[in-house]
Amino acid sequence: MMRQAGRYLPEYREIRAGISSFLEFCYTPDAAVEVTLQPLRRFGFDASILFADILVIPDALGQRVTFKEGEGPVLEPIRDAKGLEILNVDGVIDHLAPIFETLRRLSVEIPKTTGLIGFAGSPWTVAVYMVEGKGRTECERARAWAYRNPDEFSKLMDVLVDATSRYLIEQVKAGAEVLQLFDSWAGVLSVSQFKSLVIEPTRRIVENVKASAPDVPIIGFPRQGGVMIPEYVKQTGVDGVSLDHSVPLDWAMREIPETCVLQGNLDNRVLVVGGDALDRAVDDILEQTRDRRFVFNLGHGIVPQTPPENVGRVIDRIRGKR
User: Fold this and answer.
1) Which of the residues 8, 12, 27, 53 is marked catalytic?
2) Residue 141 among the catalytic residues
3) How does pLDDT run across 47-100, given as a tens digit for each residue?
4) Total domains, the chain
5) Is 12 part of the annotated catalytic residue set?
6) Which end of the chain has a smaller Cβ tally under 10 Å, C or N?
């Protein structure tokens, strides 16, 4: 499940309390391996998802990135061509060496029957944080820059395509068996910007990664992409697509080619509520996807207030109906 290692687990919070900063957490293989393994021990997930963060890319490029308690990520914003001058793709792989070490160790330590998933943020979503300087935003500055000076903004996107491609290729070399690209801010864009800022950069990354690792599946997650999701699948070449909880599964199964595996789309809030409402939601997804290749997952990440027993309830219910 998205964010399967995280603050909803007390054993995660215990380790996090002993580390001074979130980025240090991501760059400490001992800690990152342990918290990646914690949900596997509790729930026996079918796949292990690397513990890291999408903002390691701007950090590796040279932008100042911090995480503040109660506020989330804070970045020294880049809002013009001069700001782009600080970004350096050449040092990305060396900077992210601890993450590759985490993957190498996980590839040995997880069960042989458990998949190992690597991931990165998609260029548009990472660019939002780099330009806005924070999350929880309507992306006004980033969207305006892309409209006002598309050639200039494309330079930022080019840097992110290059850095993200290198990062994902190196993840595969370190042991990742599947990759996922998260575009959490895809849903704020107009149709034209969705095509230029979500579809096109993703297509280029998929092409770059497949040139190096043709057999590694890539899952795209254009969150709140709505009616643009079928075009996203067709144009990017992703092998699977994650669906947020607002996407009707019957529509997705009609409109998205069967060659693309569907993933999703349980509402993370019903996971918090639990009980009969959770059971009904799980059963509905299982019934609708009975005849389709499907990865059961959330429509967005697990929230911190989720009772761990509700996660176990979902897994038991799925496995009991197989």
Assistant:
1) 53
2) no
3) 999 999 999 999 999 999 999 887 889 999 999 999 999 999 999 999 999 999
4) 1
5) no
6) C
Q: What is the pLDDT of residue 322?
A: 55
Decide if 8 is catalytic.
Answer: no
Residue 88, in any domain of the structure: yes
pLDDT at residue 207, rounded to an integer: 98
Q: Which amino acid is at 176?
A: A
Domain of residue 157: give its range.
10-234
CATH of residue 104: 3.20.20.210
Is 53 a known active-site residue?
yes
Which residue positions in the chain have pLDDT lower than 50? none
Q: Please pick, among 7, 79, 203, 313, the residue that the annotation labels catalytic.
A: 7
**One of 8, 12, 27, 129 is an active-site residue; which one?**
129
3 as an active site residue: the answer is: yes
